[in-house]
Fold:
Amino acid sequence: MKRKTAGELSLKAASDSCKYDGREVAEAQMWDVIPQALRNARDHIEKIDEDEYCVVMVRASDPLIHGIVRQKFYSYPYLPSPRPEQAVWLYNKKLDALRFLWSLPPAKVMAAISEATVIHKKWERTKVWCDAFFNKQFWPHIRKEHNLDMLAELEFLNANREKLIQAGCKEGNTLLTDSFDFSKITVDQVIDSNTAVGA
Structure:
């Protein structure tokens, strides 16, 4: 059976008039997220020469298909820079287990939670993370909360600069990637994003 495209699924979801409980949807998504995070961690066992490392999930909306949210997973040998719509776990190779470190909501929600003086109990932990983020105290807070001594990305690179240079890494400015040139798209190539197209 042919798998439906993201566009076809988006069109079907847009026509769905049922009301869903956001908490139930989030809980259902979590059952899928943990196995993917663990799979990503295991894929990096031979690539990252550390007993423990971070697995990161970033959520992003699709720029072309309304209602589609993509989840990207990657592993880091250090604490990644915090950003909105991010979840981070610590993977232990010997235990083959993940330990949850933090999760940040979308930027607008982060700001609203951080500015709030009264917060619902379920948001208390998130408020502490958001406050630490905006007060530029994120790393000290995360290390204290989880009893970690793991370095952050910039700290790791600075601490290992000589080793990295000896290993062949070159110092220099990071080159920016070329952004997509939307001027290459002509009007007759644009298709209504709410119309599913079959192959």
Notes: Residues 20-163 form one domain.
